[in-house]
Amino acid sequence: MNRRRILIAAMVVSVLGIVWITYGLIARSSRFDYSGTIETREIEIGSKIGGRVTVVPVEEGQMVKAGDVLVRFECDELQAQRAQAAAQVAEAQADLDRMLRGNRPEEIAQAEATAQAQKAAFEEAKNGPRPQEIAQAQADLAAAQADAVNAGAYFDRMAKLAASDTISRQQLDDARDKRDAAQQHAESARQRVALLQAGTRAEDMQSAQARFEQAHAAALLARRGFRKEDIDAARGRFAQAQGLVAELDARLKEAVLIAPADAVVEVVSVRPGDLVTANRIVMDLLEPSLLWVKVYIPETDLSQLHLGQAATVRVDSLPGRSFSGQLRQIASQAEFLPRNVQTRSDREHQVFGAKVYVSNPQGILKSGMSATVHLE
């Protein structure tokens, strides 16, 4: 009888051991199981400049590759502005190169020749007329006066003949015109002699001196080249023109929206012809290659988990299949934190959000699927 009791007791102990081990394995396997929802990164596409939409080559649900064109805006005005800015860059570059290179030898020679000519004119004005010029002018005056006397005497004779009707009226008029012309020529010669004898006026001499000094300064500048501050100013204009081109290039880039990564077009909110304001979201993309399950881990489990820990992910819509994952993020701040935490059961309600990234090479998993995550 005792032997039978011992045998029964041993069997009971064995059964309890098996039950305990099984329970432990089940508890251990289910302790780090968490439920969550698959999420993916959403990419919002918009333009800083906006404008009229000309092309929308994609549709909702379409898979796009990185670099594919999603939306094009009208940009004729920007292209025209960019062409003008490029011309300003070329002009500023040429001006800067000219200053750095200095004046050409022929430009320097021309400036010096102009200065010499103005110097000669100033010296002539300063020295006044030469005696020979005055003598020549006086001789011209004497000849002109003699011609005037002869023309006057000839007219007098013709007037007497006209009085007796010996000559025609036309002949008399010709004699009068010749007399008047001779008298005017004599007066002009007299005035020229007076001007030469008076010499150069002070204001004419000052004007000649100013022209000479200006030409001389221009010749000096041509030989010395451009000042440093002028070159720096030219550099500034060139840099400003380049900056304008860079700004217009950036705005032109905003006129063509491209996919930043491989993604699925989720929402298209514009079509050709629409006038879109700046900074408006015109398209939403989902990046299916970057999926994660958002779960909430109790505080009591944190000490046994670590970033990089392997995980197995299962989804309700694909029973029997599992996907590999990795714990990559745990929130630094708890959620649903009570005011007073006193017992272990209370601490179990203090959770931390975490992200378990899951591999999706075949694109089977979709955002929004319910999933269960087991952290190994």
Strand content: 15-25%
Can you count the helices?
8
Strand order of the largest sheet: 1-8-11-10-9-12
- Overall form: rod-shaped
Average predicted local confidence, pLDDT: 82
How is the CATH topology of the domain at 2-25 and 32-67 and 264-375 named? Elongation Factor Tu (Ef-tu), domain 3
* Largest sheet geometry: 6 strands, antiparallel, barrel
Structural class: alpha+beta
CATH architectural arrangement of the domain at 2-25 and 32-67 and 264-375: Beta Barrel
Please compute the radius of gyration using only Cα atoms: 53 Å
Uncertain stretches? 17-30, 337-343
Q: How would you describe this structure to a colleague?
A:
It contains eight helices and twelve strands. The strands form two sheets. It has a six-stranded antiparallel beta barrel. A four-stranded antiparallel sheet has the order 5-4-2-7. Helices cover 52% and strands 22% of the residues. Among the domains are: 172 residues, Elongation Factor Tu (Ef-tu), domain 3; 51 residues. It has 376 residues and is an alpha+beta fold. About 6% of the residues have low confidence. Helix 2 packs antiparallel against helix 7.
